[in-house]
Amino acid sequence: MKTTTLTEEQKADIVTITFLSIGVILLISFFAFIIPNITLDQQVEDYKRNMQQKEIKEAHDFHEKMMLEENKKYISNH
After folding, report:
1. pTM value surpassing 0.85
2. pLDDT in tens, 12-48
3. How far is it, in rounded angstroms, from Cα 60 to Cα 51?
4. How far apart are CA 10 and CA 71, in angstroms?
5. How many CA atoms lie less than 13 Å away from 27 in the CB half-sphere?
6. Is 6 in contact with 14 (CB distance < 8 Å)?
C-alpha cells in the first residue's frame, strides 16, 4: 500500500480552503440570521410605537368629545 504525503503547499492550500469555507459560512449566517432579526426588531418597534400613538390619539379624541358634550350641557343649562 502506497502512502502519499502532502507537500507544504498542499497543506497550506487545505488550511486556506478551510478558513475560506468557515468565513463564507459565517458570512451567510450573518445575512441569513442576524440581519433579518435586526430588521424584524425595528419593524416590531415601529409597530408598537404606531399602536401607542394610535391609542393616545383615540384617548385624546375621546376626551375632547366628552369635554365638548359637557360644555354643550353647561351652555344649554345656563
Report:
1. no
2. 999 999 999 999 999 998 888 887 777 777 788 899 9
3. 14
4. 90
5. 6
6. yes
Q: Which residue has the cell 366628552?
A: 66
Q: Rounded to an integer, what distance in angstroms lies between the CA atom of residue 66 and that of residue 11?
A: 81
Grid cell in block for residue 66: 366628552
Measure the CA–CA gap between 15 and 27, rounded to whole angstroms. 18
As a three-state string, the secondary structure of the chain is CCCCCCCHHHHHHHHHHHHHHHHHHHHHHHHHHHHHHHHHHHHHHHHHHHHHHHHHHHHHHHHHHHHHHHHHHHHHHC
